[in-house]
Amino acid sequence: MQAAGSETEEQTSWPDDIYEVLKDSGICMAAHVPDGGHASLIRSIDADPHMMSVPLTTEEEGVALLAGAWLGGQRAVLLMQSSGVGNCINMLSLVKTCRFPFLALVTMRGEWGEFNPWQVPMGSATEAAFRLMDITVLRADEPADVKPTVEAAARMAFAGGTPGVVLLSQKLIGAKQFVK
Fold first, then answer.
1. Which of 81, 86, 96, 176 holds its CA 20 to 30 A away from the CA of 124?
2. Count of other CB atoms within 10 angstroms of residue 160
3. Residue 179: inside a domain, yes or no?
């Protein structure tokens, strides 16, 4: 039996699927605050000479960065953890007002197997917060769901003009476990 937070071969393939979708979608920039759930994906982006990885000090900077990328003729994605969604609420008004393509991939905390009670409030409010800001929410709970869900969200954002976010469930990424 696999311990919570450890990776199986099946779990490690979905970040590669996301990377492939980002490349196929013409995304050349990824804005992110460091996050364990996105670590493998961020490493792939960092290693790609045709993609730019932009570390942020706070998640809302990523919303503005995506707008700027679009104005400069490029496609970008925002990678963040659910605990950072609350930081973006005011900036998400920029997405609706300026009507630029918006795609975010959010690793969830505060769900399945969460040990940290501080993660639960924002984790339980993440989906509703995005919906209140008129952002379409899709969710991937199993490794097989990831690629088609991210493809659908990217198509909706860049071809359909519908801002979207994919929630990558805590069951998918694995519950964090800190050992004393």
1. 96
2. 13
3. no
Q: What's the rounded Cα separation, in Å, for the pair 180 and 177?
A: 10
Residue 89 banded pLDDT, cuts 50, 70, 90: very high
- Residues 129-176: pLDDT tens digits? 999 999 999 999 999 999 999 999 999 999 999 999 999 998 898 777
Residue 4 lies in a domain: no
Distances (CA, A) of 28 to 18, 21, 71, 74, 133: 13, 11, 14, 7, 25
Of residues 2, 4, 1, the one with CA closest to residue 177: 4
3-state DSSP assignment of residue 51: coil
Query: H helices within 8-88, ranges in order?
Result: 9-24, 39-47, 60-71
Residue 99's CATH number: 3.40.50.970
Residue 176: strand, helix, or coil: coil
What is the rounded CA–CA span in Å between residue 109 and residue 126? Answer: 10
- As beta bridge partners, residue 64 has none
Q: What is the Cα gyration radius of the chain?
A: 15
Please give the helix or strand (H or E) that residue 120 lies within, else none. helix 120-132
